[in-house]
UniProtKB/TrEMBL annotation:
Part of the ABC transporter complex PotABCD involved in spermidine/putrescine import. Responsible for energy coupling to the transport system. Residues 6-236 form the ABC transporter domain. The lineage of its organism: Bacteria, Pseudomonadati, Pseudomonadota, Alphaproteobacteria, Rhodobacterales. Its EC number is 7.6.2.11. This is Spermidine/putrescine import ATP-binding protein PotA. One of its GO terms (biological process) is quaternary ammonium group transport. It comes from Paracoccus aminophilus JCM 7686. The gene is potA. GO terms for cellular component: ATP-binding cassette (ABC) transporter complex. The keyword Ubl conjugation does not apply. The chain holds residues 1 to 240 of 354 of the full protein.
């Protein structure tokens, strides 16, 4: 890639004596949808958290948009994060759920209203603004969680197993919805998943993780048709 928007350069991470990411290099283009795929414990979430700034790097560098960010506090990195356990405030409406964090940051009321309206429109939930979370379906709640990340107008969306709590049918619908949103908005998205079919369906490229290293990176077709190692072949060949 000529000029990646996000670069991990020789990034290492250790928790005490336990090294979980080994000299990792990865470049991600602006507007790309990249999945980090691999078994549980292979370091995917740790890498995402280092990019978001919720985990420090032990050594190496992370650059975003030409600036080094690995020492920058999380709220200055302009990343939207969506987790599997997307706790919404149960007693607040959807609009309040989105607006509340902005209010805490001192954003003006009119600006909050405009941003909340835009974010709800992006996930096609404008009609649900005054509902409370329990009045929404699982998929709609998931879209509120996504809108809560979009309301910051981030340059990058980070998703950690965002669909893990949903049943299979809904998960497959949300995969297509998120993919469509990506195409429509030109967002840069990084998705952590252990689900091969999810990564194959959604991504421009997949980085297959094995024990803190990237075993292979490529398009879904490249990974599927030409697995580079026995590990990749076995992992991709598994059915969930
Ligand atoms: P994955 O997302 O691929 O399941 P993780 O990044 O969550 O993997 O974990 C990678 C390794 O780092 C695991 O061995 C895990 O136990 C360890 N780990 C993750 N977070 C911490 C932490 N806060 N303290 C100690 N060890 C951790």
């Amino acid at each position: 890639m000529a000029d990646p928007y996000i670069s991990f350069i020789n990034v290492e991470k250790a928790f005490g004596a336990h090294r979980v990411i080994h000299g990792l290099d990865l470049g991600i283009g602006k507007g790309e949808f990249v999945s980090l795929l691999g078994p549980s414990g292979s370091g995917k979430t740790t890498l995402l958290m280092m990019l978001a700034g919720f985990e420090s790097v032990t050594s190496g560098e992370i650059h975003v948009g030409g600036a080094r960010v690995d020492q920058t506090p999380p709220h200055q990195r302009n990343m939207g994060v969506v987790f599997q356990n997307y706790a919404l405030f149960p007693h607040r409406t959807v609009a309040e759920n989105l607006g509340f964090p902005l209010r805490m940051r001192g954003v003006a009321r009119a600006e909050i209203r405009a941003r909340v309206a835009r974010a709800l429109e992006m996930v096609e939930l404008s009609a649900m603004a005054e509902r409370r979370p329990h009045q929404l379906s699982g998929g709609q709640q998931q879209r509120v969680a996504l809108a809560r990340a979009l309301v910051y107008e981030p340059s990058v969306i980070l998703m950690d197993e965002p669909l893990g709590a949903l049943d299979k049918q809904l998960r497959e619908k949300m995969q297509l919805d998120i993919r469509a949103l990506h195409a429509r908005l030109g967002l840069t998205i990084i998705l952590v998943t252990h689900d091969q079919s999810e990564a194959l369906t959604m991504s421009d490229r997949i980085a297959v993780f094995n024990a803190g290293r990237i075993a292979q990176i490529g398009s879904p077709a490249e990974i599927y048709d030409r697995p580079a190692t026995q590990f990749v072949a076995e992992f991709i060949g598994e059915t969930n």
